[in-house]
Amino acid sequence: MISNRRSEKADVGIKGDKISFIGNLSDASADKIIDATGKHVSAGFIDITCHSDTHWTLFSDPSQESLLTQGITTILGGNCGASLAPLVKSSDISVVQRWTDINQINVNWHSLSEFFEELSRRKIGVNFATLVGHGILRRGVLGDEARHADVAEIASMEHLFKEAMEDGAFGLSTSLGSAHGRSADDQELRSLFRVVKENGGFTKHHLKDEGKNILPSIVELIRMARESGTGLHLSHFKILGRGAWPFFHDAIELLDSAENEGLRISADLFPYTKTGSALYQLLPPWILEGGSKDKILESLKNKNSRLEIKAFLKSLTLHYEKMIIASALKDSASVGKTVAELSNSSGLDPEEFIIRILEANQLACSIFNEVINIEHVSDFAKKSWVAIASDGVGYSFEKKNLFDLPHPRSFGAFPKAFEVFLKERDALRLEDLVYKMTELPASIVGLKQRGRLEKDNFADIVVFDFQNIGGPSEYGNPYLPSTGIEHVFVNGKAAVEGGKLSGTAAGRILRRA
């Protein structure tokens, strides 16, 4: 048994939805006994950077099979400035539609409480908690206008956010590099952070720039956290691109210094070298500034803009032979191939090919891009305040879409962490890695009675075989279940038995107390 950063031999008893006993149960009787001799037992893994809500799979694939088979029992949604509530009007949901066909989903909610009510009608496989996305607040008040908010508009955002916190949100997420995020001034952010602090929540940030401007992006957030007293959590921390890798140690020094000053610092990461992102995000900031799809497409058609875009892309020194097309709305033949392959076969330079595939697919194109240094990831994972997360999405194994490839992290991030940080690098102790998947994320979010094997805590439990644990999911073949996850209990119910999904969906909606 692993809990509280230590291992011990013990039996774990479950009664109803709670852990009823930890100790020696050799003389006890039970309706069901699992022999976990030679295996490890821990609290269920908690994924605090998950996008199952904004990718709509909580509705289309509510069982969240690809997460359960990793040992994940609880997810946090509302990340990276996007959440499904609160909505001022139903059409606000278009900001998080992400090219997903949601015509079969009845968006009949406005408040977070109403969203929870609608979600509770479905049997979800994992526990679900959420933040409020800064972007959905701005969208509700400002519509499509990416500009500074005035005093009255900030007050409206505050009111919306406060109601959502009262409905059970755990805090606020931002994405200050997005069109709406870049338009928010200090007054707006301070007002929202004040609501977070007054209600005992936390703030979670997608860095404005994860590349060559990562240092000023971190400095900006540290300043805001210091001024607001809310602490600072960085989602899916990474440094993108070889040109930015030299900034790694300076970035860590900034965060360490802030923590030494007494600022509450935390972060999470995933154990992969490739990102999964929209291809249009490679475009220059001045092209993305307008925010709307139509304006970006206009820029792609303009001769002078095209030249500027190509020059900008060349300056990024991208490795096109490692950049894979993961999805293309109208060009399924390109999926799974590299930009280098596709540009060579079409007789175009890679930059021109990128512009053309974006045009042809109305921007609906995503990529896997190898831009992360795994040694940096491993070093960062050693920090006591860094948790493991997937930055992925829960999927069904049966509903494969081989023309829109999910990132392997959606199927194997947590077991992959055992491979990368323990089996390949010996970067962490087993007990510390499990802590980063259980107790630490529970503490960061403020989840009560979860994340730790303890009497009267909820029985979210994983039994795993360390020798066999791993994430075999691949970029070209992602729909592979993790190995070594033998049993998973969610609120006392068996969701995975003997390495196989049981079909039981026992997840609950978690509200901030």
From TrEMBL:
<dbReference type="GO" id="GO:0016810">
    <property type="term" value="F:hydrolase activity, acting on carbon-nitrogen (but not peptide) bonds"/>
</dbReference>
<dbReference type="Pfam" id="PF07969">
    <property type="entry name" value="Amidohydro_3"/>
</dbReference>
<dbReference type="InterPro" id="IPR050378">
    <property type="entry name" value="Metallo-dep_Hydrolases_sf"/>
</dbReference>
<dbReference type="InterPro" id="IPR011059">
    <property type="entry name" value="Metal-dep_hydrolase_composite"/>
</dbReference>
<dbReference type="InterPro" id="IPR032466">
    <property type="entry name" value="Metal_Hydrolase"/>
</dbReference>
<protein>
    <submittedName>
        <fullName>D-aminoacylase (Aspartate, glutamate ETC)</fullName>
    </submittedName>
</protein>
<feature type="domain" description="Amidohydrolase 3">
    <location>
        <begin position="32"/>
        <end position="235"/>
    </location>
</feature>
<dbReference type="InterPro" id="IPR013108">
    <property type="entry name" value="Amidohydro_3"/>
</dbReference>
